[in-house]
Every structure is written in structure tokens, then in C-alpha cells.
Prior knowledge:
CATH topology of the largest domain: D-Maltodextrin-Binding Protein, domain 2
CATH architecture of the largest domain: 3-Layer(aba) Sandwich
Structural class: alpha/beta
CATH class of the largest domain: Alpha Beta
Largest sheet: 5 strands, antiparallel
CATH superfamily of the largest domain: Periplasmic binding protein-like II
Strand content: 15-25%
Shape: globular
Order of helices and strands: HHEHEHEHEEHEHEHEEHHHHH
Amino acid sequence: MSTTVWKKVCAGIAALGLTLSLAACGDDDSGSDGKSITLGIIPGWTDGVSMANLWKVVLEDEGYDVKIDELGDAPLLYTSLNRGDVDVYPSAWPEVTHASLMEKFPKLEDLGSYYDNAKLTFAVPEYSSLQSIEDLKGKGSDYDGKIIGIEPGAGLTKMTKESVMPEYDLEDEYQLVTSSTATMLAELKRAVDADRDIVVTLWRPFWANSSFPVRDLEDPKGALGDSETLNEIARPDFADDFADVADMMTKAKLTDEQYGELEDLVVNTYKNDPEKAAKEWLENNPDWLDSIK
């Protein structure tokens, strides 16, 4: 329950002349007078991990108690946002990838974009003869009839099943194999190490594009959608409850270079300590911090 709703409940009870305990009707953890904020992320989605830890460091320096919750997939995360169990998803894909979830939960608050050139892709190793998604047609046997995907609930999975495969007439020849981002990357590594053909679903920005020798397949039919923004999406009433935080998130912008540096620190330099990675990034980018305050 958001603070706004809780205060109304408490006020209604008080109007009836009933005694309220301080513990019951004091500000809850997510209230405007409280200092606790929960950020939601999807495991393996390193844009979310990077941004959540960046905001954790920034907001804790402002005196907030910040918790990062891992939710299994995008539908669960958006549902948790809508219920108020999570305050902010700091790296959402609302325009294309998560468009259906934004439509499903119209009361969610879009605090604006921090990155403006995100896109979904199909990728192959650099040694592959494929140039376009169209080239997959008739070559299913070279790939064991499989396109290696990520989480079943991911927007990229939905776009692949509902748009890419029917648009390019691949449904009778290929199976989209879903599991997790980590499993997809493990499959990609095994294939590259063995110089074996593979096609995977990927996206930009994502560290794997520079860490693996891969390239995007052309999408002449536009089945994966246009480039989109990465945004901070908040629960209903968040901007009322946390006006200062919402204002900072609205002002936040990252260039390709800044984003690449942050994710590289999180994924490759400090693999087990993303918070330390965020702190180093902030030390290297003091002007960014000044720009959001």
C-alpha cells in the first residue's frame, strides 16, 4: 500500500474517533517521510543490475535505505511495481520490449529515459556466413533447428515468438529455446570456443556484445521493433511520495561511453561487487552526479 493510500486510511479511522497506535499509522517504509526505497531488477539483465547499484549508492549517500529485489522475469517485476511491493524498476524497456506490460499497468509512473538507443537483436558469431535474419530460412539443420533465447517471460522472447519467427517464416524450421540469460551466454561461449554455428537473441546495450566476437543480424522487416529508450518506471504515487528522488531520476542521462564504462565495471571488473563498481564509476564521473541534483 502506498503512503498516500495509507494516510487516507488512517485519517478515516481517526475521523471515527478510534485510537490509533503510532506503529500502525506512522509512515510506512515507502512513504514520503520514510527513507526506504526498493529497486527491482531481473537477474542476468546487467543494465538493471548496473543502474540499480548506481542508484543505491547515490540514494544511500542522500540518506535513504535502499534495497534491491531480484524478480524472476519482467511480468513479475511489473506486477510487483503495480502492487507497490517495488518502488522503481531503474532500467525498463517501456516503448517496445515491455510495451504490453505498460499497457497492462497504466498507473505506473514513467520517470523518463536515461538511455536513448536501446534495441533488440539476433546475433551470430563473427565467423558466421549469415548476414540477415532472412538468411536463417532453409538453414535450420545447421543450427539444430534452435534459436537460443533468454527468459520465457522476457519481452525479447515475446517479440521473437510473436513477430520475428512468423514474419520471417521460421516457425516450422526452428524452436526458440528459452531458459535464462546466463544459460544463453553459456551456450554462446561453448559455440564460439568450438567455432560452431549458433544464433542467439541479444540486445543493446549489453556487455556481451563487446565481450564475445558477435555481430547483429540485419532485420530488414523490422520485426524486432525500432530502437527504444531505457527508462526508470515507478510504482503509482512514487513521484508524490519521493519528489526529490523522482526529480533526480528524471534528470539522469547516460551517453554510450558512460553506460559502457558502468556496465564493464559491474560485469567484468567487480563481478561480485556491483556496488563497488558503481562507486568507482561515480568517482570517475563527478559531473554526472552534479547534473542530477
